[in-house]
Design a protein that fits this description.
Blueprint: H1 2-16, H2 21-24, E1 40-44, E2 50-56, E3 59-63, E4 69-76, E5 79-85, E6 93-98, E7 104-109, E8 116-120
Antiparallel strand pairs: 1-2, 1-8, 2-3, 3-4, 4-5, 5-6, 6-7, 7-8
Length: 122
């Protein structure tokens, strides 16, 4: 009986190490990469008006230079979409990037509209 237990103990590491490499090296993916925060004061590149992005528990509140508000949430890496608004086009997609100076930028795209940009001011 003792010999059988010793044999099993010696074989256990071999059986555990026999897992196929593809399973053993499987990488766990975390949530989509996104900037730490997009909150801040921005300048609308078209008219130099001040715009604001506030961090909220349910997403990010975007306020344009006219005071119009829209709630955005991340839907992919560096991409936000409108989930609540009264005045913005609900199909607007905001993409986070950087300009040549390394400043955070937000590009707004909507079907049939010319893209617009906000650049982080502070």
């Amino acid at each position: 009986m003792r010999h059988i237990l010793y044999t099993l103990l010696l074989l256990a590491p071999l059986v555990l190490n026999a897992t196929p490499r593809s399973e053993a090296q499987m990488v766990r993916r975390g949530p989509a990469r996104r900037p730490a925060s997009v909150a801040g004061i921005y300048l609308n590149a078209a008219n130099q008006g001040y715009c604001y992005i506030y961090r909220r528990a349910d997403g990010y509140l975007f306020v344009n230079e006219a005071g119009d508000k829209a709630l955005f949430v991340f839907t992919g890496p560096n991409q936000l979409e409108v989930v609540e608004t009264l005045t913005w086009n609900p199909s607007v997609v905001a993409r986070v990037g950087a300009d040549e100076l390394g400043r955070l930028t937000i590009r707004f795209d909507a079907p049939g509209a010319v893209p617009s940009f906000w650049v982080l001011a502070r």
